[in-house]
UniProtKB/TrEMBL annotation:
It is found in: Cell membrane. The chain crosses the membrane at residues 12-30, 37-57, 98-118, 130-149, 161-180, 231-249, 261-283, 295-311, 323-343. It comes from the Bacteria. InterPro entries: UPF0324_pro (IPR018383), UPF0324_YeiH-like (IPR004630). It comes from Marinobacterium sediminicola. This is Conserved hypothetical integral membrane protein. Pfam families: Cons_hypoth698. Keywords: Cell membrane, Membrane, Transmembrane, Transmembrane helix. It is a multi-pass membrane protein. Belongs to the UPF0324 family. The keyword ATP-binding does not apply.
Length: 344
């Protein structure tokens, strides 16, 4: 059955228009010279605007927007994740070297395992919430949280909680890393290696946008290495999603009449697009347009998510998610530094 036949197009329009307006507002707001706006990034701002709109909107608007909001949260999200693959090319991955890949692999595996162990066993968080926080810290921030949530069937209210940890500690990294780079003892630790410090930034900072902001303060070679190392981490989203779909699929009991979760097909398509990028099959103008469309789709998904989020649910989650986010941030900083010194 074709996708659009599942929806009534006139019923889609109110919700799609709402998320489009909110996401465009976020994309415009992030360009304004306001304190702290650049740190948040367009995706987080779209979610915050969505939360505000959701609390101000009446029941009538919420009912009219239901189908369009659902479409944005599910289908535009997957389209945005797929297009994200066009930001990566195999030439970039080769330039970063095997050391960057090894560091990324260890960082992702250890961060996810620690999030599950500490979050579930020690902090007594719900398993899916702990995994979402771990995915956001380990891979690529809000995009990883959004991609992981449907794969593990996480509660909708757990997503903004996980994203909040990404925003807070990713912003802390944006302040901390440029300062660390100027310290003589850090330069000595990395043997004055700009490339090594770039690997550290790319392997341990939460969001691609946050890595880009840090890279702007670094020398050219370090900046390039930071971004490419980060994009390597983004590619690890696919095996992580495949693993999570199997782990959480087994949790569903046959007695409940459920089946194992399907493989996230959008993640597999995502893996093909770096090949398109490497072979230069698309002209530069079209590629730039698709990058903008990718950001717009993800922002619309975040706005739709925010619209359905209630602050009372975030407050009810308490301090434990932030404690887990803080522990993972310290682990990324210290563990990433040790790995970079040893392998880089």
């Amino acid at each position: 059955m074709p996708l659009l036949s599942r929806f009534n197009l006139p019923h889609l329009l109110p919700g799609l228009t709402l998320t489009l307006v909110l996401s465009l507002g976020a994309l415009l707001l992030v360009k304004m010279p306001l304190p702290g706006i650049a740190m948040a990034g367009p995706l987080t701002l779209a979610m915050l605007l969505g939360i505000l709109a959701g609390h101000l909107a009446g029941n009538r608007l919420e009912q009219l927007s239901t189908q369009g909001l659902h479409f944005s949260r599910h289908y535009l999200l997957r389209a945005g994740i797929i297009l994200y693959g066009l930001r990566i090319s195999f030439d970039d991955l080769q330039a970063a070297g095997l050391s960057a890949l090894l560091i990324d692999l260890v960082v992702v595996a250890v961060t996810l395992a620690t999030a599950a162990w500490v979050g579930i066993r020690w902090l007594k968080l719900e398993a899916r919430t702990a995994v979402l926080i771990g995915a956001g810290s380990a891979i690529c921030g809000a995009a990883a949280v959004l991609a992981s949530a449907p794969t593990i069937r996480a509660r909708q209210q757990a997503v903004p909680i996980a994203i909040a940890t990404v925003v807070l500690f990713g912003s802390a990294a944006m302040v901390l890393y440029p300062w660390l780079f100027t310290q003589p003892w850090v330069q000595a630790l990395f043997d004055n290696g700009d490339v090594a410090f770039g690997r550290l930034v790319g392997a341990t900072t939460h969001e691609v946008a946050q890595v880009t902001a840090i890279a702007a303060t670094l020398p050219e070679e370090a900046a390039h290495t930071a971004v490419v190392t980060k994009l390597m981490r983004v590619m690890l989203l696919v095996p992580v999603l495949l693993l999570l779909s199997q782990l959480f699929g087994r949790e569903e009991t046959p007695a409940a009449g459920t089946q194992r979760l399907p493989i996230p097909w959008f993640a597999l398509v995502f893996m093909l697009l770096p090949l398109v990028n490497t072979l230069e099959l698309l002209p530069d103008n079209l590629l730039m347009l698709l990058h903008q469309l990718d950001q717009l789709f993800l922002a619309m998904a975040m706005a739709a998510l925010g619209f359905a989020t209630r602050l009372s649910a975030i407050r009810a989650a308490g301090w434990k998610p932030m404690v887990l986010g803080a522990l993972l941030f310290v682990l990324l900083l210290l563990g990433g530094t040790a790995l970079t010194v040893l392998l880089g």
